[in-house]
Amino acid sequence: MKELDTNTKSALMKRIDDFVENERSEQPGVPDTTIMMPELNRVAEEYSLDVSDLFIAYLDHIAITNKRVAQEAEEELDFSKIRRFY
User: Which listed site, 14, 47, 55, 57, has its alpha carbon 20 to 30 Å from 66?
Assistant: First the structure.
């Protein structure tokens, strides 16, 4: 992805987050990847970014944010406690 300064990248990720949250409440049951694409396309066009690179950067953002939230809540997943039930 084209190099963006940290503040711009953070602002873009928040913009996409806000869009997805808003649309998720208006379109329950629609996959997030479907919901996010219009905003990803708008941001990519506005900032002359490759939409595929932006999509990957946004997925990275989600993964990092979710891990940070889990760590802050001290809810680390303990795989040893997960069992399959048949």
Answer: 47
d(CA 16, CA 35): 10
Coarse DSSP helix, strand, coil percentages of the chain, rounded to the nearest 5 percent = 70, 0, 30
DSSP string for residues in 47-60: TT--HHHHHHHHHH
pLDDT in tens, 28-70: 888 888 999 999 999 999 999 999 999 999 999 988 888 776 6
Question: 0.90 exceeded by the pTM?
Answer: no
Q: Is residue 84's pLDDT more than 70?
A: no
d(CA 77, CA 46): 38
Task: Let me know if 63 is exposed, middle or buried by CB neighbors in 10 A (0-12, 13-18, 19+).
Answer: exposed
DSSP 20-49: HHHHHHHSTTS-HHHHHHHHHHHHHHHTT-
